[in-house]
Amino acid sequence: MNHWMIAPVLLPAMVAGLLMLGSNVLSLRIQRAAGLLSGAALLAVAVVLLDQAAGSSQQVYALGSWRPPFGIVLVLDRL
């Protein structure tokens, strides 16, 4: 199971939550830098996942090890 498949979902959600919690404490410059760094990290994860999808067939990630139709399943393919 490839845990990188969940990163494009979790990374923006975690950074957005941290930026919202620290909006009163952090300066605008730090918030913008954190946004740009998270965008760059998301781009790097997308490139890694694109490379993995090009080299193999479909990969399936079942969140919480629940089978469909009860769980959420992420699929990594070339589409």
Features:
single chain; 79 residues; two-stranded antiparallel ribbon; 2 helices; flat
Describe the structure.
The protein is mainly alpha-helical and 79 residues long. The chain is built from two helices and two strands, in the order ααββ. The chain has a two-stranded antiparallel sheet. α1 packs antiparallel against α2. The longest helix has 28 residues. The radius of gyration is 16 Å and the shape is flat.
Helix content: 40-55%
**Which sheet architecture does the biggest sheet show?**
2 strands, antiparallel
Main sheet strand line-up: 1-2
Count of alpha and pi helical runs: 2
**What is the SS-derived class?**
mainly alpha
Number of strands: 2
Shape: flat
C-alpha-based Rg, rounded: 16 Å
Task: Encode the helix/strand succession as letters.
Answer: HHEE
The mean pLDDT is 89
Our measurement of the CA-to-CA distance between the termini, rounded to an integer number of angstroms, reads 19 Å
Q: Provide the low-confidence segments as ranges.
A: none
What percentage of amino acids are in beta strands?
Answer: 5-15%
Question: What's a concise summary of this model?
Answer:
With 79 residues, this protein is mainly α. The chain contains 2 helices and 2 strands; from the N terminus they run H-H-E-E.
List the helices and strands and how they pair.
Blueprint: H1 7-21, H2 28-55, E1 59-62, E2 73-76
Antiparallel strand pairs: 1-2
Helix pairs in contact: 1-2
